[in-house]
Amino acid sequence: MLMRRKVVLQILIVLYVLLSYEGVQGEIKLSKVEDLELKKQFKLLNKPAIKIIKTKYGDIYDCVDFYKQPAFDHPLLKNQNFHPKMKPTLARTRQNSNTSATNWSSSIWLKERGCTFGTVPIKRVTKDDLIRHRRIPSPEAISSEVQFININNNSDPKRSYISSQGYKLASAQVQNNPNNKFSGAGMTSSLWNPHVEGQQNSACRLKIQKGSDILQVGWRVDPTLYKDNKTRLFVHFQAGNTHCFNALCPGFVLVNTGLPVDMVFDEISHRGDQQMAEITMFIDRDLANGNWWLLIGENHEQVGFWPQAIFTDLASFATNVEMGGVAYSPPGVPEPPMGAGCSLAVDPRYDAYCRRPNVLNDKGKTIPNECPT
């Protein structure tokens, strides 16, 4: 009987350790000051909804008045003359392009097909979300030794696979030259759902940068950010010491009524598919005012923009462009897979890829280059 009690006690101790570990993963104890700060952030992010819409994946979005979206809480955006009908002046898109949601974004909604004109979809944030977001790792180091593509000659493109502060990168990068003047970049990426656990994440992204200012768009699997393991769209910006994802802090101005920046992708690639699921994405600088626009899809769907006013370095042109995969794991945790999650087969039906990469010069024209396809 005594032996049985000891065994039971040992089992309980093991269970306690395991559950405590999960508790660390899922719970963070807050001080009174932190709790007050959290409540303030909660109130700022959850704006009054004109209408509430849901996706078939269970996400709740508030259709928020364009002028009351979180972006305009930024102190530098208080007196801007932005409006819902804004159109960028871009070399690669038609001025009369439709801002309605694309077919593949419309398919995510349960009943509605997005928000009504004059409102934008903002994902409802819970207190648990905000607590969980405190575990989001710091961004990658701004300076890292990455092999690059030289756009000024016909040398073979080089790819990098490096490690930086828990991050693993498999990417191609234009040489970071302070004399570069890039007004945008774009690519098409296959969509995958790599397996991640805990605080791991895995993504594919397009990234442009100058100094400490960075813009990113892509897809990612990130339980810490999204509370699930679905493949979702993401945007991220860094302006000096400020950085955040999607609409979780003031900065990114949404104009699209039906395409949220954190939406779930309906279709995902599987190894051996004859036709891979893809996303085409662009970040382009408005030639008229310096705002950086996010465009999605073959028809250059205008999703929204990062205003020039919030940047210092990217108030002008970018000097660096990078595209490819990135994965993160906390210290002591094995790295998660990227993309297809398997060894390279050198076959687009089995490998994750980025194709049709392009970089724009300061006139908005594509620079001839030998980027990887």
TrEMBL record:
Record flagged with keyword tRNA-binding: no
Domain of life: Eukaryota
Annotated coiled-coil segments of the chain: none
Membrane spanning residue stretches: none
Gene it is expressed from: LOC104214469
Pfam families: Neprosin, Neprosin_AP
Signal sequence, renumbered to the chain: 1-26
Keywords, comma-separated and alphabetical: Signal
Protein name listed in UniProt: Uncharacterized protein LOC104214469 isoform X2
The species this protein was found in: Nicotiana sylvestris
Record keyword RNA-binding present: no
Domain Neprosin PEP catalytic intervals: 161-373
